[in-house]
Design a protein that fits this description.
The protein is α+β, with helices and mostly antiparallel strands. The protein has four domains: 145 residues, Rossmann fold; 109 residues, Beta-Lactamase; 103 residues, PAS domain (Beta-Lactamase, 2-Layer Sandwich); 154 residues, Histidine kinase-like ATPase, C-terminal domain (Heat Shock Protein 90, 2-Layer Sandwich), CATH 3.30.565.10. The chain is 42% helix and 23% strand. It has 18 helices and 23 strands. A hairpin with a 2-residue loop joins strand 20 and strand 21. Helix 15 packs across helix 17. The longest helix is centred in the middle third of the chain and has 45 residues. It starts with a strand and ends in a 5-residue tail after the last strand. 27% of the residues are buried. The N terminus is likely disordered.
Length: 635
Amino acid sequence: MAKEIADIVSCPDTVWSERETNILVVDDSKTTVELIREAVAGKRRIRLTVAYSLAEARMALSRFQPDLALVDLVLPDGSGIELLPVNREEASFPIVIMTAQGDETEAVKAMKGGALDYLVKSPSILADIPAIIARSLRTWQYIVERRQAVKAVRESEALFRSIFNSAPSGMVLISPEGDFLHVNPANCRLLGYSDDEMLRMKVSDITHPEDREFVQKLYDELLTGQRPLVEFEKRYLRKDGTVLWGHVTVTGVRDDGEKLLYFVAQMQDISARKQAEEALRQSEERFRAVFNTAAAGMVVISPTGEILQANPAICAITGYSESELLHLTVEDITHPEDREKTTSYYGRLSTGGQENIHYEKRYLRKDGKILWGYASLACVTDSKQRPLYCVGLVQDITERKQMEEELRKANRELDAFVYTVSHDLRSPLTPIIGYTEFLREQYKGQLDEQATTILAEIHRQGHRMLRLLEDLLSLAKAGNLARPDEPVDCCHVVEEVIAGLSNQIADAGMTVQQEPVPPLRVPRTLLAQLFDNLIGNALRYGRKEGSSVEVGGERCGALARLYVRDHGAGIPPGERDRVFDLFYRGSNGVNIDGTGVGLATVQKIAHLFGGRAWVEETSGGGSTFWVEILDEERH
């Protein structure tokens, strides 16, 4: 069994800690053990654990780890060397080998095997055992610290190597002369070179020729210590000849004497960002070129209406210089009567109510004159759909508005003339038609066949003239009615028109099929004229006994489309663009009563309400007349 001896307190040696020091003595000589005990007695707190054989030593070591072991080289059951670890780097406590006279050679072997020290057992040496213990513990402390330092270095190197090799960005170590010392896989992948190829190259070899001078200047500043770190962007030449943009950070590593050992450089691929920046730059240049050279006025406006940018065309339109416009708001150059409308439109854009707006408005020029402009606005928003600014396009339509006004005036005068002429011409027609009827009735049987035929022709032509004048009156009056406040029930209007044409429908041997028609804010009388002309036209020109005429409509947003479809002979393609011309009747209307005014009236009604009329071929034969009407108030 191991024998424990606890004594010795208070020793001023600062190498030992204030805690108890555990010493394992392994020796079969009781004399040696007693000399050691006597030597350390009274010096400081030491706990001695004594083992007289290898077996007892191993048992003791299974229970605790000593701070130091004093082991005799020769033991009854073996050599003390057997307690040394196989790998001296794995030793967890120091072992000092004790030998007798003549065992020094074996002791040297023990030292090579991992023993911390050895001593020759003699009374004088054993008396100095406290100093030997103190020296051994200091030496062991140094060894432990060195091991920890080596371990830390190795762990640091392993960590750096792991980071270096697994980093997604390129990393390299570069000599002061610009040669590559180490390169990581990411750097090889980015540039297309192998590790061996890179290690035979210099920094200048992979740097774009246009960037070499300024890159060398930065490295020189690092080399001379002017700067501890540089960060820049440069172009790399890849192995396949393509160019890669990189964001580079370089720092210098120096020794204690401040001598530069090597550079550490890190590179991130920013080619995609550079391409995006270049695309943005080109886009901005194109926009700037379009902005500055556009014939139409263009402005960039803040959400609150301030003018942020103005092109030369808008300056010419308004008479202000760009610097003057940048101190104005949209309201300042807007006619007072149009400001409320303009503010409302900007409100819709800024709140996301509309993506873009197109409208006509009046502008106030610097010289006080008024001009008309057609404005198109779009709002640019951020990622959260908050308005950043608006882009406005303005076209000067003053001349067009003047022409429109002149045209409206001319049309009003023409309508008044047509109304007057047609009204005045109806007066003499009434007695002419009446007298022919009187003569035919009064002198029936007394007139020869030629006279009777002449009177019949006068009567027929008189009625034809009367219908023409009535149609001209309808055409003249078509533009004099405003939109009603409430939508008109078009289905009911169509029913009334069909009822009024019942005799013509029966004479033609046809039927009229009424399909849904959307309600419209169009005067009821004009709707009646429109459907009466279209359905009557289908009965006359699309006549085919047993066939039908379909009437219906549909809505497409603000537009309403009405149609009347027949299945008759149809209209030749070359005549479809002319059937809405005044007095044009076409090749199919030679032997059919008509004035050529009805379809012109339909087209005029369509134009009055922002639409148009056209004709298409019906599938299977016949014609489909379409009328498109804008069913909202125009600004």
